[in-house]
Write a structure and sequence with these properties.
422 residues; Rossmann fold; Dihydrodipicolinate Reductase, domain 2; 2 domains; ten-stranded mixed sheet; 11 helices; globular
């Protein structure tokens, strides 16, 4: 099973067969069950045999259903940890179903492991766009002074999938709010909006992220649009999974602190959309008393400076600026200064999991959610989740392969935000 998907793409197939065989010789399968103490003891004995007397570290990757997590971590903690090095535990989403279940799970995990042993992994946070957020801001003087309410009018965070392949029993139980918004979207906003950390140490960065999450105002249901795609075949309409599973989410978030007070962070994420798109769009205020206003056309908003950070497949950094069009007249045009990664860099882009797993090995935890970050994120979403669970929010149906619910356009207009073209 492993060999069917194993590749040597990073070193371009050099001695690939030999390297694959060497790797596969180091793999083994051992059945243990979820709460099988004997199985975990066998795993420990097998690892001891491989490690010998030398110092050894262990990483446990738990890709198990959430309902089995307590049993697995309990037996693992007592029967499979090494005493000759460090132990780290990787946990897949979801991190609870709501605030109470997440807090209960966190308390249990912290009774078995230290916080710095726990790595809650979200593969979407391993994208280069996320890692570049802080680099772009904190290492460029041209951006850092502008990063506040004084210059930024609004921020859009967009994540849309054109496919529905991720749908399944897991997604049916959680929906897009618990699956995508709670971790990926809120973590993206936290990294974008945080104050400069005192260092690049993971804990220093997580300290600043949690301050942002605690400052985000709890979501009001009237600032949220939820949708569900439908597939049409003739006269038949096939709704997604069940009437309570949102596949689209749009919202206006506000950070109540001195840097971001009043700046709407507009979020839009959905499945079955017209195209795959991962973007962060930062629109700046109009120039006060702009003497070229009459040369900008009837809609000044379209000529506003904008910084666009775009992820794969067309990874780029785009800066929209106004300039004079060539010719005798005085006509202004909004043009994009662009850095297209595929033109600039001839390098393999590692998979998100590759990036994050290497971070675990290195002990770099800044892209992994700490327990207090989890709690703060649930507090933001609790009002909306309660309304969903009580069936008090109607899901707006949208066409599969379309642009999403029309209600999202009205939400954007309500907050004076120009909807970015698809």
């Amino acid at each position: 099973m492993i060999s069917s998907t194993l590749t040597c793409r990073i070193d371009h197939q050099q001695n690939c067969t030999e390297k694959m065989e060497s790797f596969l010789r180091k793999t083994f399968y051992l059945y243990g069950g979820y709460d099988n103490k004997e199985g975990m003891s066998k795993l420990d004995a097998r690892m001891e045999l491989l490690e010998g007397k030398s110092e050894a570290n262990r990483i446990f990757y738990l890709s198990v259903p959430q309902e089995a997590l307590v049993d697995v971590t309990s037996t693992l903690a007592h029967y499979a940890q090494t005493q000759k090095g460090w132990n780290r535990v990787i946990i897949e989403k979801p991190f609870g179903f709501d605030a109470p279940s997440s807090n209960q799970l966190s308390q249990f995990l912290l009774s078995k492991f230290e916080e710095n042993q726990i790595y809650r992994i979200d593969h979407l946070l391993g994208r280069n766009l996320i890692e570049n957020l802080t680099v772009l801001r904190f290492s460029n003087l041209v951006f850092e002074p502008l990063w506040s309410r004084k210059y930024i009018r609004h921020v859009q965070v967009i994540l849309s999938e054109d496919s529905v392949e991720a749908a399944g029993k897991y997604f049916e139980g959680y929906g897009i709010v618990r699956d995508i918004v709670h971790s990926h979207i809120l973590q993206t906003i936290a990294l974008f909006a945080m104050e400069p950390p005192v260092s690049l140490d993971g804990e220093d960065i997580r300290n600043e992220k949690v301050k942002v999450l605690r400052s985000i105002r709890s979501l009001e249901p009237n600032d949220v649009i939820l949708g569900q795609y439908k597939a049409t075949s003739g006269n038949n309409v096939d709704l997604y999974l069940n009437d309570l599973t949102p596949t689209f989410f749009a919202a206006a978030l506000f950070i109540d602190n001195s840097r971001w007070d009043g700046v709407p962070f507009m979020v839009r994420t959905g499945m079955g959309m017209i195209k795959h798109r991962v973007e962060i769009r930062i629109q700046f205020h109009n120039v006060a008393g702009n003497i070229y206003r009459e040369c900008l056309g009837h809609n000044v908003d379209l000529a506003t400076n904008e910084l666009i950070l775009r992820d794969l497949p067309d990874e780029a950094i785009l800066l929209k600026v106004n300039n004079k069009m060539p010719g005798l007249g005085l006509h202004l045009d909004a043009s994009e200064l662009n850095l297209l990664y595929k033109d600039k860099y001839n390098a393999e882009v590692p998979d998100s999991y590759e990036h994050l797993l290497l971070d675990v090995i290195d002990g770099d935890n800044h892209l992994f959610m700490r327990s207090d970050e989890l709690a703060a994120a649930w507090n933001i979403l609790n009002p909306v989740l309660q309304e969903i669970d009580n069936n008090n929010i109607e899901l707006e149906v949208y066409e599969l392969g379309g642009r999403g619910p029309t209600g999202a356009y009205y939400l954007w207009a309500k907050h004076g935000v120009w909807w970015a073209d698809d």
